[in-house]
Specification:
Keywords: Glycosidase, Hydrolase
Low-confidence stretches: 1-31
CATH topology of the domain at 431-637: Rossmann fold
CATH superfamily of the domain at 431-637: Glycoside hydrolase family 3 C-terminal domain
Helix content: 25-40%
InterPro entries: Cellulose_Degrad_GH3, Fn3-like, GH, Glyco_hydro_3_AS, Glyco_hydro_3_C, Glyco_hydro_3_C_sf, Glyco_hydro_3_N, Glyco_hydro_3_N_sf
Structural class: alpha/beta
GO molecular function: beta-glucosidase activity
Largest sheet: 8 strands, parallel
Protein name: Beta-glucosidase-like glycosyl hydrolase
Family: Belongs to the glycosyl hydrolase 3 family.
Strand order of the largest sheet: 11-8-7-6-5-4-1-12
Length: about 800
C-alpha cells in the first residue's frame, strides 16, 4: 500500500521514515567499507594504488617472491590439498606468486603417480587461491607461472614440437594457433603466466638449449615471437583462456663463449641492437606483459643487474609496461656466479634497482630485499613501483573477481582431440627434407618389408625434448608406431634398436645390418636426446649436471637440453657405425634425425640417399614423420639454423657481416646445409621479378613482386624467402638479411603471384653515432628457396 502514498503523507509515519533512512545509511556504509581495490567497477590504476597504500613493507616484498610451486600441494590418493609448506610461505613470507606448481619431471620428483592430472591440478590451484583469499589480511590472489615452451609442462597436456621445430614450419599463423591451445590448457588448470617464447638467437650449436630457440635469424625469431605472444595473451588476459607471455631470456643468452650455458657474452652494442634485441622489441610491441632476465653477462654487466637494458631500453625506449622476472636463481647469481657483490643483500639491491620486479625461486629477494630497503639501499619508491607492476597484471587478469577455475573443464578440454590433431599438423610442417637423391622418397606403401632401426626409432622420451612432463606410453606415437599405422598389416615392419645414443655396451649393429639386408628399405632413426631421467643430478637452477658414468654403469642418452653443452657436434656412441653398417648392405636407406641441435652429418650426407630432419617433433611425431616418408604430406619445413661441417667453422650463420669468408685449408667455409634450406616432392620455378622503390631514403616504400610456379605433378607448399643486401653502408653490413617470407600452397601445374612490401624499418642501419637511419644508396633484392638457393635478383636505389 505504501506506493500509493505521497512523500508528505509518509511524514505522518515517523517510524517508517526512520527505518528507511537507517537502511539507506546502512547500505551506504557497507559500500564505503568495501575497499576500493575490491570494487570491480573502479579503474585498475586506482585499485592498485588503494591496495598498495594498505600493504606493509613485508607484504610488498612478499608479492615479489615467486616460490617453487610443486612443493605447495599434498596428494593422497585422488584428494589434493595445500601443503604445510604453502601455508607457512603465505603466512610468514606473504608470497604473491608461484612457479612450476604443476610441473612434473625428474627434477621435481613428480611422476605420473605423485603428480597431478588436469582435474587434480585445477583442484589444487583452487585450494591455494581459497586459502590465500580466506586466510590473509588483504586477500590478494596468487599468480601462478608455468613452463609453456612447446606445451604446458604438466601431466596430461598436449606436447608439441620444440621451438626449433616450430620455427621450421615458417608458418607464424600456425604457431599462433598452437600457442592459443597451450595457453588454454595452462589456464584451465589454474595457471596465469606461460614462460615463453624463447627469443635467443642460436648462433652457437654447442650450447645446450638450441632446441628452445627459433634459430639464428632476428627476423624469423621476431615473427615467431609475435605469434606466440598473440596466441598466449589473445585479445584479453581476462578471458579465462589466455595467459601472460614471459619473453626469455633478456638478452643475448644464446651465444655463450665456448657454448657454456649461462657464461659471459662478448657482443658489441651495435650487434646487440641490430641482431639480438629486435625479436624482444617485436614481442613487446605485440603486447608481451612479462620479460625474464638471462643468466649471462654482456660486456661485464650481468643481465639481471643491467639497468640500461631493463630501464633505458626495455621500458623507456620500447614502452614496455609489464613486469620483469629474474631467471631461477639469477639474483643470487650476482653474488655466487658473477661476483659483482659480496652479499645476498647487495644482490637483491642491484637487481631491483636495475628494474627486476619479481624473484623467481624466492631466495633472491625475501629477507635480503627487506634488509636492503631497511638499510636505505633500495628506496620505497623503487619497491612500490615493482609491486605496482605485479599487482596491475593481477587486476588486469581479473583474478580478484575470478580467482578459481572449473576442474571439469580442465578434465574434458586439456589434451583434446582437436589439440592432438594440431600437434600432428605442427609436427609434419616442421619436418625438413634435407636430401632426396634419385627421389627415394616418398616411399611406396606396397613394399614387402621395412626395417626400422636406431636409438630414436621407438623411444618415447627421446622425441619430446626438454621441458616435458612424464607421459603415458599411449599418449606418444613413435616413428616405429607411426610407420606401422601408415602401412597396415600387409607390410612386414621389423625393428632393431641397434645402439643407444651414447652408451656403447648394448649395441647390436650386426643384428641391425642383418635385418636391413632382408628388407626392401631401411629407416634409420638417429640423433640426440634431451630426455632427463631420475638418475640425473641437477643444478639449483634445474639445469642437468654432466657427469661421467662409473664403470659398468649404463650412460644416459641425454646429450642436449639445459646444461648439456657439447665440445663436438658428432653423433655420439655407435650411431655412425650403425648407419655405416646398414648402408653397406646395399638396401636403400633413409636417415631420420630426431635431435635438439645441428649435428655432424658429413658422412651421412655423402653416402645416404635420403635424410629427414624432424628435430624433437612431440607426441605426434611418429605419425607426422610417417606422413612425410610415405608422401601423405609433402614436406614444407625449412632450416632456421645453419648446419656446420665442423666445429672449427663456428660460428656459422648466414647473415654474418662483410667481408665474405674464404675457404679453409681443410675445406669449404660454407655450412653443409644453409639457413632456409629444405626440399619438397614438388619442383618450383621463380620468374617475373619486379622491384619498385618510391619515396626518399627517409621514408621509402619498396614493392617486390614475382611469380612462383609449381612445374611438377605434385601439389606443394613453397616457402618463398626475400633477402636484402645493402651494397654500401656507413657501418659494416651483413652479407644478406631475411626481410620477408611466406609459406604458400601452389597446386601442381599452377602459379602464385607474391608481393612483398618493404619499409624504412626493413632498410635502416645503426649509424656510427648509434642512431637509426636509412641511408641513400643501392640495395640488392634476392628471392629464393634458401639463403644459398637464390632464384631471382634485382636492385633498387634510394635517393
Amino acid at each position: 500500500m505504501w506506493r500509493h502514498l505521497s512523500f508528505s503523507s509518509l511524514l505522518k509515519y515517523p517510524l517508517f521514515v526512520f527505518m528507511c533512512l537507517g537502511m539507506a545509511f546502512l547500505a551506504y556504509g557497507q559500500e564505503e567499507s568495501e575497499p576500493l581495490y575490491k570494487q570491480a567497477t573502479v579503474p585498475v590504476d586506482q585499485r592498485v594504488e588503494d591496495l598498495l597504500g594498505r600493504m606493509t613493507l613485508e607484504e610488498k616484498v612478499g608479492q615479489l617472491s615467486t616460490l617453487l610451486g610443486w612443493k605447495m600441494y599434498e596428494k593422497r590418493d585422488d584428494h589434493v590439498k595445500v601443503s604445510k609448506a604453502f601455508e607457512e610461505a603465505v603466512q610468514q613470507q606473504h608470497i604473491g606468486m608461484l612457479w612450476a606448481t604443476l610441473r612434473a619431471d625428474p627434477w621435481t620428483q613428480k611422476t605420473l603417480v605423485t603428480g597431478l592430472n588436469p582435474k587434480q591440478a585445477a583442484e589444487a590451484t583452487n585450494a591455494m587461491q581459497k586459502y590465500v583469499l580466506e586466510n590473509t589480511r588483504l586477500g590478494i590472489p596468487m599468480m601462478l607461472a608455468e613452463e609453456c615452451p612447446h606445451g604446458h609442462m604438466a601431466i596430461g597436456t598436449t606436447v608439441f614440437p620444440t621451438s626449433i621445430g616450430q620455427a621450421s614450419t615458417w608458418n607464424p599463423a600456425l604457431i599462433q594457433e598452437m600457442a592459443a591451445a597451450i595457453a588454454l590448457e595452462a589456464r584451465l588448470q589454474g595457471g596465469h603466466i606461460g614462460y615463453g617464447p624463447v627469443l635467443d638467437l642460436a648462433r652457437e650449436p654447442r650450447w645446450s638449449r638450441v632446441e628452445e630457440t627459433y634459430g639464428e635469424d632476428p627476423y624469423i625469431n621476431s615473427q615467431m615471437g609475435r605469434a606466440m605472444v598473440s596466441g598466449f595473451q589473445g585479445e584479453s588476459i581476462a578471458s579465462g583462456k589466455n595467459v601472460i607471455s614471459t619473453l626469455k631470456h633478456f638478452t643475448a643468452y644464446g651465444v655463450p663463449e665456448g657454448g657454456h650455458n649461462g657464461t659471459s657474452v662478448s657482443v658489441g652494442q651495435r650487434e646487440l641492437h641490430e641482431s639480438y634485441l629486435p625479436p624482444f622489441k617485436a614481442a613487446v610491441a605485440e603486447g608481451a606483459l612479462s620479460v625474464m632476465t638471462a643468466y649471462n653477462s654482456i660486456d661485464g654487466v650481468p643481465c639481471t643487474s643491467n639497468g640500461h637494458l631493463l630501464n633505458d631500453v626495455l621500458r623507456d625506449d620500447w614502452g614496455f609496461n609489464g613486469f620483469v622476472v629474474s631467471d631461477l636463481g639469477s639474483i643470487s647469481g650476482l653474488r655466487g656466479s658473477h661476483h659483482v657483490t659480496e652479499t645476498a643483500e647487495g644482490a637483491a639491491q642491484l637487481a631491483i634497482n636495475a628494474g627486476v620486479d619479481s624473484d623467481l625461486g624466492g631466495y633472491g629477494f625475501g629477507k635480503n630485499l627487506l634488509a636492503a630497503v631497511q638499510a636505505g639501499g633500495v628506496s620505497q619508491e623503487v619497491l612500490d613501483e615493482a609491486v605496482r607492476r605485479v599487482l596491475k597484471v593481477k587486476f588486469d587478469m581479473g583474478l580478484f573477481e575470478n580467482p578459481y577455475v572449473d576442474p571439469s573443464k580442465a578434465e574434458s578440454l586439456v589434451r583434446s582431440a582437436k589439440h592432438i590433431a594440431l600437434a600432428r599438423k605442427v609436427a609434419r610442417e616442421s619436418v625438413v627434407l634435407l636430401k632426396n637423391e634419385n627421389d627415394l622418397l616418398p616411399l611406396r606403401k606396397k613394399v614387402n618389408s621395412i626395417a626400422v632401426i636406431g636409438p630414436n626409432a621407438d623411444n618415447t622420451y627421446n622425441q619430446l625434448g626438454d621441458y616435458t612432463a612424464p607421459q603415458p606410453n599411449e599418449n606418444v606415437v613413435t616413428v616405429l608406431e607411426g610407420i606401422k599405422n601408415k602401412v597396415g598389416k600387409d607390410v612386414r615392419v621389423n625393428y632393431v634398436k641397434g645402439c643407444a645414443i651414447r652408451d656403447t655396451t648394448q649395441s647390436e649393429i650386426g643384428k641391425a645390418a642383418s635385418l636391413a639386408a632382408r628388407s626392401d628399405v631401411a629407416v634409420v632413426v638417429l640423433g640426440g636426446s634431451s630426455a632427463r631421467d631420475f638418475d640425473t643430478e641437477y643444478e639449483e637452477t634445474a639445469a642437468a649436471k654432466v657427469s661421467e658414468a662409473e664403470e659398468g654403469q649404463v650412460i644416459s642418452d641425454m646429450e642436449s637440453g639445459e646444461g648439456f653443452d657439447r665440445m663436438t657436434l658428432d653423433l655420439l656412441g655407435d650411431q655412425l657405425k650403425l648407419v655405416q653398417a646398414v648402408q653397406a648392405t646395399g638396401t636403400p636407406v633413409v636417415v631420420v634425425l630426431i635431435k635438439g641441435r645441428p649435428l655432424n652429418l658429413n658422412w651421412i650426407d655423402e653416402h645416404v640417399p635420403a635424410i629427414v630432419d624432424a628435430w624433437y617433433p612431440g607426441q605426434e611425431g611418429g605419425n607426422a614423420i610417417a606422413d612425410v616418408l610415405f608422401g601423405d604430406y609433402n614436406p614444407s619445413g625449412r632450416l632456421t639454423i645453419s648446419v656446420p661441417r665442423s666445429v672449427g667453422q663456428l660460428p656459422v650463420f648466414y647473415n654474418y657481416r662483410n667481408p665474405k669468408r674464404h675457404d679453409y685449408v681443410e675445406g669449404s667455409a660454407e655450412p653443409l646445409y644453409a639457413f632456409g634450406h629444405g626440399l619438397s616432392y614438388a619442383d618450383f620455378e621463380y620468374d617475373n621479378l619486379e622491384v619498385t622503390a618510391s619515396g626518399m631514403a627517409g621514408s621509402p616504400t619498396v614493392r617486390v613482386h614475382f611469380q612462383v610456379s609449381n612445374i611438377s605433378n605434385v601439389d606443394g607448399e613453397e616457402v618463398v624467402q626475400l633477402y636484402v643486401r645493402d651494397e654500401a653502408g656507413s657501418t659494416v653490413r651483413p652479407l644478406l638479411e631475411l626481410k620477408r617470407f611466406e609459406k604458400v600452397m601452389v597446386p601442381a601445374g599452377e602459379s602464385s603471384k607474391i608481393t612483398f612490401m618493404l619499409t624504412a624499418e626493413d632498410l635502416q642501419v645503426l649509424g656510427q653515432d648509434m642512431n637509426w637511419l636509412v641511408e641513400p644508396g643501392s640495395f640488392q633484392v634476392l628471392v629464393g628457396r634458401s639463403s644459398r638457393d637464390i632464384r631471382l635478383e634485382g636492385k633498387f636505389i634510394l635517393e
